[in-house]
Write a structure and sequence with these properties.
There is one protein chain. A hairpin with a 5-residue loop joins strand 1 and strand 2. 36% of the residues are buried. This protein has helices spanning 2-26, 29-43, 87-90, 93-100, 131-137, 175-190, 220-244, 275-291, 310-314, 326-333, 366-373, 393-401; strands at 48-51, 57-60, 63-69, 73-79, 104-108, 114-120, 144-150, 153-158, 165-168, 194-200, 215-217, 260-266, 293-299, 317-320, 348-353, 355-360. It folds into two domains: 27-120, Threonyl-tRNA Synthetase, Chain A, domain 2, CATH 3.30.980; 131-401, Rossmann fold, CATH 3.40.50.300. The termini are far apart. Strands 11-10-12-13-9-14-15-16 form an eight-stranded mixed β-sheet, with helices on both faces. It has a four-stranded antiparallel β-sheet with strand order 3-4-6-5, with helices on one face. Strands 1-2 form a two-stranded antiparallel ribbon. By secondary structure, it is an alpha/beta fold. It is built from twelve helices and 16 strands.
Length: 402
């Protein structure tokens, strides 16, 4: 009887140790991450559907193939079943952040099946614009846009490859500073190969580019004149490319290659009722890429009436600073993540290019921008016509000839 009790005690003790070991293993960070990822796949219906025996539906979910934990992050890799569209994962990046937290970034490997995911524990801190580090990040790009810093380092892209940019965010979120930083960087990096036109419909931001941009206007009639000029220029460039039998202005002979053109419009939502101007802006968004004509559009509150149809689809890159609610955020980037940015996080954005990621934009003051732009003053600007900008269509056409 005593021996039986001892054996029972040993058995219970061994069982208790096994349960404790299992609980300890289950709560290891890598196992928690594996379960969380599988939870994302199930919640998001992220599977590949197949037909099995007698037409039975079979679901094949992505398979987690590795998890590693570091001081500041957790990294995981998962592989899609053959036949599953990887865009289903990138389009569900918002769900990964809902389940795993805001510090999640996804990247697709060259095989089209393997995703790497990083979950960071820290936050992206605010930082000042540094001209030298920005120049280093933009090296070897034709029309470079400096976005800011993510948790993995500098974020930048070439507008020639990814044309037309939309910047949206409520007052005080960092939108205007981002515009200032992007255009200042473009001017400094591209120089004489860039023609910049600015429309400052709020009369609050683009004055810093007077004498640097080809033209800065503050009313609708002035913008209409610029749009007409760019439409004429696009037709000219199209004729030139047709004569040389090339598909992009970069393929033209060096002596015939025109400069890139960027039209920046602050508070484009004010143009909602200006059909002629919006038609011209939409035309640029549709055919401008091959012709070397690009848009940078900014607005405080995204307007579905303005961002409808072809224009929205052609704005391939988005910067969403803090939005007031989830509806506005979804208009800009297709998810509610921009509405989660806190008011204290000035300069924080959701950057959408290949998927979405949180990025901190640099802080560039007006005074610092003026100092950086001084060497470029009056190098590219044209004299403002000495006429009233409220002119007829015929008068505008005559101005184009001047």
């Amino acid at each position: 009887m005593i021996i039986g009790s001892l054996e029972l005690f040993k058995l219970v003790s061994a069982g208790g140790c096994g349960v404790a070991a299992w609980a300890l293993w289950r709560n290891q960070p890598d196992q928690v991450m594996r379960r969380s990822l599988n939870d994302v796949f199930i919640r998001g219906d992220l599977y590949y559907k197949m037909r099995g025996y007698r037409g039975r539906e079979l679901r094949s979910y992505p398979r987690v193939i590795g998890v590693k934990t570091y001081i500041d992050r957790t990294e995981a890799a998962f592989k899609l079943p053959v036949g599953m569209d990887p865009s289903r994962i990138t389009e569900s990046a918002w769900l990964f952040r809902q389940v795993l937290g805001s510090g999640v970034e996804l990247a697709l490997a060259d095989d089209g099946r393997t995703f790497s995911m990083r979950k960071y524990s820290g936050v992206i801190g605010a930082f000042e614009y540094d001209a030298e580090s920005v120049a280093a990040a933009l090296r070897n790009m034709r029309l470079p846009v400096y976005v800011g810093k993510s948790r993995t380092g500098d974020v930048a892209y070439d507008m020639v490859d990814h044309p037309h940019l939309l910047i949206a965010g409520e007052t005080g979120s960092g939108k205007s500073v981002a515009l200032r930083s992007i255009l200042t960087s473009l001017i400094r990096q591209v120089g004489a190969k860039l023609e910049l036109y600015c429309a400052d419909l709020k009369r609050s931001e683009f004055h810093v580019f007077r004498g640097v941009a080809r033209e800065v206007v503050t009313d609708v009639s002035g913008l209409e004149r610029i749009v007409l000029r760019l439409q004429r220029e696009m037709r000219h460039r199209g004729d030139l490319m047709d004569a040389e039998e090339v598909a992009h202005i970069d393929d033209l002979p060096a002596d015939k290659r025109p400069p890139y053109i960027v039209l920046a419009i602050d508070e484009v939502a004010l143009l909602k009722r200006e059909k002629d101007v919006m038609d011209g802006v939409e035309e640029i968004s549709t055919i401008g890429r091959a012709l070397g004509v690009f848009l940078v559009l900014a607005m405080q509150r995204p307007d579905a009436g303005v961002l409808d149809g072809r224009l929205k689809n052609n704005l391939t890159v988005r910067m969403a600073f803090r939005h007031s609610d989830a509806i506005n955020s979804r208009i800009t980037i297709g998810s509610d993540e921009a509405a989660r940015i806190l008011d204290r996080d000035k300069g924080r954005m959701v950057f959408k290019l290949n998927g979405c990621e949180y990025v901190q934009g640099p802080h560039l003051t007006l005074a610092a921008a003026r100092t950086l732009l001084n060497p470029y003053k009056n190098a590219n600007a044209i004299a403002k016509p000495n006429v009233n900008t409220s002119v007829s269509d015929n008068d505008i056409i005559e101005l184009e000839v001047l």
